[in-house]
Amino acid sequence: MISIPTAVWAHHVGDLLAWGGAFLGGAWLYRRYPEAVRRLSRQTEPSYFIQLAVGGVIGAWLFGSLNSLRSEIPTMSHSIAGALAGGITAVELWKWRRGVRTSTGTPFVIPIAVAIVIGRWGCLFAGLDDGTFGSPTDLPWAVDLGDGVGRHPVQIYESAAMLLFLLVYLAALRAGRAWPLKIGFHVLIMVYAGQRFVWEFFKPYPLVWGVFNSFHFLMLGFVGYGICWIIRETRAKPLRAEGVAIPLSQPNDEPL
Known about the structure:
This protein is mainly α.
């Protein structure tokens, strides 16, 4: 069993580092693939980002609290999964009202993945007070968060899974593959949902049906959302569908 030094403030440090990493990831994308970011600015307006932010905050606290209020000690809480759900819902409603029928999520793929990879370590070092700890286990890599109980390091599981996705995504970008810039956001959502669905079995969250907790069903919703969008995007014309050229094979070249 591995003893982990914990402190409540570690969560806030993790959040700051995650935001910083997300910003740097977004800045890198803009330098290497500026057209992918400019496309978002052409499709949207300030109200898009306002609605995204409001939806993310509402979703974070709604879904987090729906889970934590069912625990033995009911408390309000927030969740990255809920923030994603709220943000996606808000954006899709914004796009529906304005007739935007293409994905606007490409510029967010790297920032979201980086934020999760870094932020989950903040959750780990925040310890039991963070509420994201794993179920007890006697596995050799179990972590002690201060109560003498060995637990699954679910935060590390999730960080490692999303780091693997990020490496694959960056490799695909460098290789000039089409999918990172066309359906990358929805692949991100499906990968996040798939790995999170598995790790939920290693958390002591209250169950809502059989062996499933509320986040299991939210992850299934993410998978369905991703599948629908990927089918729609792959049936459409190539990346020139809206007359917007996106450089694929050589990121430093001028758009075709």
